[in-house]
Amino acid sequence: MTIKPLIILPDPLLRQVSQPIEQVDSDVLKLADDMLETMYDAPGIGLAGIQIGVARRILVVDVSREDEEKKPIVIINPEIVRSSDERSVYEEGCLSIPEYYAEVERPAAVTVKHVGRDGKEHLLEADGLLATCLQHEIDHLNGVLFIDHISRLKREMVIKKFTKAAKAKV
């Protein structure tokens, strides 16, 4: 397994829509393992393929606490098939927008149809933090960032800050 470098805002790659994965093969499984290692190393609770420069519809999540056994989930070609009317608010952060956090309101529960590591279709019913994390990562696959769910003024300030930081590195 390999820790991959993270794509950081304002990289335009983060706005790209990811392509479906046709078949779960050894390359996809290796990608999933690399993504998990990268996510744990960061550390984070979710990572989409695009965040390591791979524009394919794959994400990994693990919302277990540090004192619990790891519970990694690999999700390929996810599709939200049901969202609750009930809403919840979580303070979200993102490995591609380091050290910035904001409260985001999303559906409190979702059902996600996806392909697992076994190549078979599954339904995952999630609520709480897992539901928020899944929605956040699926947004990434569609070129959407969590800052797109906050006010325009706050979003523009964040983008400006990260654009300035990126220019300073060059």
UniProtKB/TrEMBL annotation:
UniProt KW keywords: Hydrolase, Iron, Metal-binding, Protein biosynthesis
Cofactor note: Binds 1 Fe(2+) ion.
Group of enzyme by EC: hydrolase
Origin superkingdom: Bacteria
Active-site residues, record numbering mapped to chain: 137
Catalytic activity, EC: 3.5.1.88
Positions annotated to bind Fe cation: 94, 136, 140
Cofactor(s) needed for function: Fe(2+)
Biological process according to GO: translation
Function summary: Removes the formyl group from the N-terminal Met of newly synthesized proteins. Requires at least a dipeptide for an efficient rate of reaction. N-terminal L-methionine is a prerequisite for activity but the enzyme has broad specificity at other positions.
HAMAP family, A to Z: Pep_deformylase
Family the UniProt entry places it in: Belongs to the polypeptide deformylase family.
PANTHER family, A to Z: PEPTIDE DEFORMYLASE (PTHR10458)
Descriptive protein name: Peptide deformylase
Organism, scientific name: Rhizobium rhizoryzae
